[in-house]
Each structure stands twice: as C-alpha cells, then as structure tokens.
Design goal:
The structure is a homodimer. In chain A, about 35% of the residues lie in helices and about 25% in strands. Chain A has about 400 residues and is of the alpha/beta class. Chains A and B meet through helix 1, helix 2, helix 3, helix 4 and strand 3 of A and helix 1, helix 2, helix 3 and helix 4 of B. Chains A, B: It catalyses: L-aspartate + ATP = 4-phospho-L-aspartate + ADP.
Chain lengths: ~400, ~400
C-alpha cells in the first residue's frame, strides 16, 4: 500500500515529538507500506519567522517573505528524516524544488499547478521513506512560494493525488471530525465517514480540522482522506466520495460561528445596480461579506441584511452610513451579538423537510431566527448569540446525532 | 563597476545590523555600481541548527544536516533583500538552486564545481541588487550541500570569479590583516596589500580573517579581495596578485600557533617503509600531523620529531608507544608547552638570509629553537611556549614591521 501522511506543527512541535512521529512512520514501513510524509513547520516557527520579517520592515516583499517562511518546513522535514535515518530506516527529506511542486506566482497563497512524480517514485523504489516539506512550491521561474495557512494539508492531498496513493492520512491534534463541538455538546460523536461536500461545508463553517482547499483537491482527485490524531492509534474520520449509505443520514453535523456581526439596511431603492453600490466599497475595503438576504416590500423598496466578520463591524457600519443619504435609506441597524448555527448533511438532497424541522426545533426552544440561508447540503440560521449552545444541543439531539448511525 | 560583497554572521547578527548592511549596500547602488551580496547566517543561527540536530540524534545523516543548516543563510538573505526592497532598492534573494551553484556531493564540506551566471546577469540587467545565500550549493542531482565553516567567503570569491567582478569585498568584524596579532604586538600595523600566497600562509597559521579555500579560489581566478570591517568605512587589506613592490618587503607578517604539541622518536630504524608504519596509524585515527622532521644518525638509525594538535597529544603518544617494541625505538619523548612562530613574506623568494636573520633574532633573546620548517615564503620555528610573545615582538621589530613600508 502507498500511504501519504501529513503531520501538523503540533505533531512535530519538539524533538521528542519528532522522535514519536518517526516511530509511527517506522511502524508503517515495517508493515510493508511505502510511505510519503508531508510535514508542517514545528509549532510556533512560522509565526516566529513572520514576526522577524514584520519587525524588520512594515511590508515585507512577498517573494522574500515566502522564501523566509519556507525554511520552517525545510527544518522540520530535515529533522524528521534524520530521526528515521538514525533509527535505521533510510529516509530522504525533499523540498519543493527537488520534486518539483510547481505553483502559480501568487506569493503567500500560491496554488499548486503540477507535481512531478519521477523523483518520488524513483526514491520509493529504492526503499526510501520520503519526508516532504509541506506548505510550499516553486514557480516556473524557480521562485519559492507558499500555499498559505494550512497549506501542508493541501500539499499532502495533492501529493497523494499525484502518486495515486491508497490513502492520505492527516495527523493532527484532534482525533477526527465530530457531529458537533464536543465542548458544547458532550454527546457529540466522532463521524466515521463523511463526504467531501459535507466536509467542505463543515470546514468553511469553522470546524478547523482540514484546510478547505485540501478538501477541494481531495474531492477533485477522489483521494480518500483519513483525519486522525497523532497522539493515538484510534481511527479518525474518513473523508470520501459520497455513497448511498450517506444519503440515509439526514444530517451529519451541527456547527456554529460566533465571529460574525449583522448589518441591516431598510428602505433600499429596488433598482438595478444598488447592490453593487453597497457591496462595492465594502469589498474594496477588503471586508468579506458572508450571508446576504434581500426582501422586497410592497412600497417598491427593499430591506437588506448581511453579515461581516465582527472585527470589521464598525468599519462596515461607517461605510454604509456614508451611502445612506445617496441611496435614501430609511434606517441602518446592526447587531454584534449574533451567531450562525448550521446543519450539514448530504442526505438533505434526497429528503425534503429538513429545513422545516430545523426551524421547528429552534421555535420549540423559543429561539428567534433573524436570517436563513441554504445550500444543497447545508441550512444556516442566524440567531441571538446567547442561544448558541442551546440551539446546537437541541439540533444535535433532534436530528439523532447522539446515536451511532446504523451500519449497512 | 561590478562589486561582490560578503557580510559575515556578525554583520547581519540582528535586525538593526541587517538594516545597517542594507544602507551600506544602497550607498554602493547610489554610486552607480552593480552589487551582488553574499550573506552568512545570522550569528549563532548555524550553531543553533547544529545543536538541534545533535540533540535529536547522535549522528545526523549528512544530507539532511546540510539541508537543515542551509536554512540559516536562506533566512538572512531573504531578510536582507526585504530590508532593501522596503528602502526602495529592488533586491532579490537567491539560494543555491536558483542560480545554480553546483558542487560535488561531499555533504558538509562540498566544493564548488560550477556557477551559472545567466540568471544573475539577467537580474542585474533589470536593476536588481542580488542577495545570495552563502555557504551552500546543490549537487548535480539537486541535493542541498554546504561548503563547511567559513564557506560564505568561498561563495563570494567564486561568484566574483564567475561574474568577473571588479572586486570582492569581504566585510567582517576585523578591519583587515595585521602584521601580527595586535593583542601581542601593540605596534602591529594593518597591511594595505598582500599577495594571495602570503595570505594563504597567514590564514593557515591561524590569522582567521579569510577562509583558506576562498583565498585559493581568489588566487586561481585572480579575484582582487578586499578584507574590511562592516562597522566602519576605513579601507582594509587588499589581497591581490604578487607584484614587484611586494618583493621589496622581506617579511609581511609574524604569526604564532600555540595549539600544537611535539613528539620525538629516537632510534628509528632507517629503512624504507618506517615512516608509513608510524604515520599510517596516526592518520587512521584522524590525527592531523603538521611538521615532520627527520635526521639521520651515524649509527644508521634516525631521530624523528613531529607536531600534532595538543588535543590529540596523549592519543598520539599511546599510538607510537604501541609501535615502540616492533620498531625497536630507543626512546619516545614529547612536550605540550611549545609554540610555533612563523614569518611570512613573498620577498623571501628573492632575498637570501631571511632565515638566518630569524634564527639570530631568536638567539639574541635567548630563545632555543626545537624544530625548523620552511616553505618558499614562510619560515617556522618551534620554541618553548613561554617565549611566544617575546619571539613575536622581537621578530616584528627586527624585520621592520612596525614601520609603514615605502610606497613607490
């Protein structure tokens, strides 16, 4: 079997942990597998390097910043390969240019374009364990790039895809994907199998287990991803292609997000181009708008509500207040004490009535819904922040997430 | 003018010093020069990385150790380029694979085989200042190598040679090469110009200003090297091809070395192969023998004296004691309290009598000579350690090194 494994910064956070990871890798090798490992920088190292750059100059040049930060993974991959070599397991550390992992030229958030497999296959054939520096690539011209935060997940999935690996194991400091945040729902269960689409919705909702781009990559190339703990041998969560058994489960998980704030504009003129007039300046200010809801009124005007990150709330308010007169708005109003609660499940596609049930559950607990937004496999409601825990627990129970789903 | 500059670890030891170096580089650019800069790792960084590796495993695999240690210069070159970019001087950091700087495969002490100039010339033409990570290269197969301690000097000289630079300036924490150690000889003068050969003899004698391989490189490719302080604007010492004016100076400098010990073997059988029997086991034990002197005796036997590093003295004694019976040696004797005092000067070639004058000066001060060894431009005497300072000062004065040489 060809196994690609990824170890995050915490898993290789100090020398003792690097030795532990080496022992785990050696076990796989002993079982007869070919092993390709992708590592992040040792915990704290990337931040140390970024701080160094920002202490030196206000705005570091992006090309050199990537060159600087990329050393973090070069260090951890070299150390891990050393540990394996010292244990008698021949290993080679490889950085992006040695493979090469080609990316576009967007320094700081480059996208992988192509991964050559010749060198990796050749070294695997010679019996080497490969330790690959995650998070980085090189451009066509040979400049060093980085893939942005969490990029090592993407490196691992992309390498698994390129090599046609049997599985891509993501070792992290959590032991899998849960039906809800266990800190809020003590009865939350670890999900055994979940589809790429569900994982994408969960990841974007703040279940920070897998970097979202790595899931997109896994989905496109159909790479089975196993998310699991680097501190135990328990199986974690398999992220795989959707199949029929998944459709039987209405809802796979409940998530929440308390980092957004709501802004409502009343009496927006209902004419073409108004939305652009409102959201153009907000986008230019670099503020990411999440949900947008617009409702027509009998008087030919409309009310519009949207959410932005809490940290951008005041800035956004000032921006729309600047537009109030020009657009003849009746009223601008906002709230920071809100939360978005979502249910995610591939089974929604086949089963109507999931949304209705969600609204009913919230109503039964006296929770008022301010905004609703839906996708094929997700329903989100914005509610008052103080009801977050209550809503998550109630939905978790109502959709039967406390119980293990029946196995076929 | 095309100037190659090298800044050592102390010169880029912290962010403030990096900013200072950037300002100095900017000045050269303002004067209209093309500038290529080679940097070492920030002071202490190479040792930090080496310690990390040796804390992790007893014997780090050489390939991965080089990969690890090479990050030190990648960090400093990226930071220095950032500082220049922030000041408005377009700069690009380049690591070995981006040039490329090709070496052999001797990890930890690789030798430069070839430096491509296309990329560098192209970037210079575009107006970039180039900041090159020193001390490292890549093999034909793309593995990262390092050139060994002081390797950044070699990188700088090799790049200056490849680009046909007008001068290679080595900025360091001393301000040049002196006629003697100023801590011992207060009247020691900074040498304005010195030949490659003299510099080689001085460097190998312990005047640790320039790495010896970089001088060999400079000599082969006739690169004028300017050794100077990164903390001042004073000119330092030019290391250049020998010319007639140099021959007028009998002696350029006086050096000493207190790190060796002497071992004497009496009654060595005078037959072919004996020397190999003695020095074979010593070499196999990794002990570097410096001077060797053998004198025949009327009885057909010989007496042999040699020096080894003080740290290897006891080990060497045990080794030769093991041979005593087999070779029928009469006596083995050794001394640790010795020093080697040397005078170096290209002028010796043309002027006989320099050696005689050296012996006379030592005799006048009552200093007994235990061993003598000579090369074309160097004479070394082993004396009792306690006379080191006296000998160095006496020779410095006797050969007129206190006075500035006459300019032509």
């Amino acid at each position: 079997m060809l196994v690609v494994q990824k170890y995050g910064g915490t898993s290789v956070g100090d020398l003792e942990r690097i030795r532990n990871v080496a022992r785990r890798i050696a076990r796989y090798k002993e079982e007869g597998h070919d092993v390709v490992v992708v590592v992040s920088a040792m915990a704290g190292e990337t931040d140390r390097l970024l701080n160094l750059a920002h202490e030196l100059v206000e705005e570091p040049s992006p090309r050199e910043l990537d060159m600087l930060v990329a050393t973090g993974e070069q260090v951890s991959s070299a150390l891990l390969a050393m540990a394996l070599n010292a244990m008698g397991y021949p290993a080679k550390a490889l950085v992006a240019f040695q493979i090469p992992i080609k990316t576009d030229e967007l320094f700081g958030k480059a996208r992988i374009r192509d991964i050559a497999t010749d060198r990796m296959l050749e070294e695997l054939k010679k019996g080497y364990i490969l330790i690959i520096a995650g998070f980085q690539g090189i451009t066509e011209g040979g400049d060093i790039t980085t893939l942005g935060r969490g990029g090592s997940d993407t490196t691992a999935v992309a390498i698994a895809a390129a090599l046609g690996a049997d599985v891509c194991e993501i070792f992290t400091d959590v032991d899998g994907v849960y039906t809800a945040d266990p800190r809020i729902v003590p009865k939350a269960r670890k999900i055994k199998r979940i589809s790429y689409d569900e994982m994408l919705e969960l990841a974007s909702m703040g279940a920070k287990v897998l970097e979202i781009r790595s899931v997109e990559f896994a989905k496109i190339y159909k790479v089975p991803v196993h998310v699991r703990s680097s501190f135990s041998d328990e199986p974690g969560t398999m992220v795989v292609e959707e199949d029929e058994t998944m459709e039987k489960v209405l809802v796979s998980g409940v998530t929440y997000n308390r980092n957004e704030a709501r802004i409502s504009l009343y009496g927006v003129p209902d004419r073409p181009g108004v939305a652009a007039q409102i959201f153009g300046p907000i986008a230019e200010a670099g503020i990411v708008v999440d949900m947008i809801i617009q409702t027509g009124r009998p008087d030919g005007r409309a009310d519009m509500t949207f959410t932005v990150p809490k940290t951008d709330f005041k800035k956004t308010l000032r921006l729309v207040e600047g537009l109030a007169e020009k657009l003849g708005l009746e009223k601008i109003e906002g709230a920071e004490e809100i939360a978005k609660v979502s249910i995610v499940g591939a089974g929604m596609r086949a089963h109507p009535g999931v949304a209705a049930k969600m609204f009913e559950v919230l109503a039964q607990h006296g929770i008022n819904i301010h905004m609703i937004s839906t996708s094929e496999i997700k329903i989100s409601c914005v509610i008052d922040e103080k009801y977050t825990e209550l809503a998550v627990r109630a939905l978790h129970e109502a959709f039967g997430l406390d119980r293990e789903p029946e196995e076929e």
